[in-house]
Amino acid sequence: MHLLVTNDDGIDSVLLHELVRALGAAGHRLSVVAPAREQSWIGAAKSRHRPVASARADRGLGCPTWIVDGTPSDCVNIALAQLLPSEAGIEAVVSGINTGRNTSIGFILASGTIGGAWEGALHGLPAIALSQELTPPGFQALKQPASAMTPEVAATVAATTGHAVRLTDALLSPDHRQPFTVHSVNFPFPCRPDSPVRRTVPARISGTGMFGPADADGLHRFTYNHGQDLSPADLPTDRAALAAGEISHTVLDYTRLGH
């Protein structure tokens, strides 16, 4: 397939580069359009109140690459409408791999990774959002150059990209396309070549304070909070799958909104 690849961690994300190389090695034709800098927690926002710049770039990915000074949704929208001519024939959108998981209802809605995939679905394309669970040290390692990866993180990234290619092939194929649908896939840490895939639903997390008290400068600063899991014990949730070392596959069918 000809895939449009984006993310919310920015053009220099190690996981974006590893994913692109794996998809290319599998024979896919790729176009990469990614944010100039990290756009985490931006959801499906578009930059309405300012102009957005785009520029062709060479990041050694072996495929046409652009940097957009905007959100993941900006990237996909501008790519499909302006950067890639209709004859380019984009067949699907792949967003990720995100540095960190995107699980539960509240976090899914806030995810820029899922927002980028959703923009593809809005354009009638099959879309998948890929996210990697990490320990705090692993999270910090993947915010650095690839050379900073520990052997454990490197092994997980290798397994995850292999699964990502197989799931992209399976879930975005012409036989499995559904309108207004995003496949949200979360990989456990550690991820192994034999990690099983489990079909899940978003966990029901009660949102608690995400900002600390005002500092001396009067500003409230973001603080990550896992929230309280209110999911029924027998619900096969994305969080439960990761806790069990499984790959979580959640189908986000937006045509179900209102049911």
Question: Can you characterise this structure?
Answer:
With 259 residues, this protein is α/β, with parallel strands linked by helices. It has helices at 14-25, 72-83, 105-110, 112-122, 136-141, 151-171, 238-243, and strands at 2-6, 29-35, 54-57, 65-68, 92-99, 127-132, 181-187, 197-200, 205-206, 228-229, 247-253. Strand 3 (54-57) and strand 4 form a beta hairpin. The model has no long low-confidence stretch (mean pLDDT 94).
Question: What is the fold's blueprint, element by element?
Answer:
Elements: E1 2-6, H1 14-25, E2 29-35, E3 54-57, E4 65-68, H2 72-83, E5 92-99, H3 105-110, H4 112-122, E6 127-132, H5 136-141, H6 151-171, E7 181-187, E8 197-200, E9 205-206, E10 228-229, H7 238-243, E11 247-253
Parallel strand pairs: 1-2, 1-5, 2-4, 5-6, 6-7, 8-11
Antiparallel strand pairs: 3-4, 7-11, 9-10
Helix pairs in contact: 1-6, 2-4
Feature tags:
alpha/beta, two-stranded antiparallel sheet, 11 strands, 259 residues
Overall pLDDT score: 94
- What is the N-to-C succession of helices and strands? EHEEEHEHHEHHEEEEHE
Cα-atom radius of gyration: 18 Å
Helix content: 25-40%
The major β-sheet equals: 9 strands, mixed
What is the number of helical segments per DSSP (H or I, 4+ residues)? 7
Arrangement of strands in the largest sheet:
3-4-2-1-5-6-7-11-8
Strand residues, percent: 15-25%
Q: How far apart lie the N and C ends?
A: 33 Å
Q: Count the strands?
A: 11
Return residue spans where pLDDT drops below 50 for at least 5 consecutive residues: none
Which class best fits the helix and strand makeup?
A: alpha/beta
Shape: globular
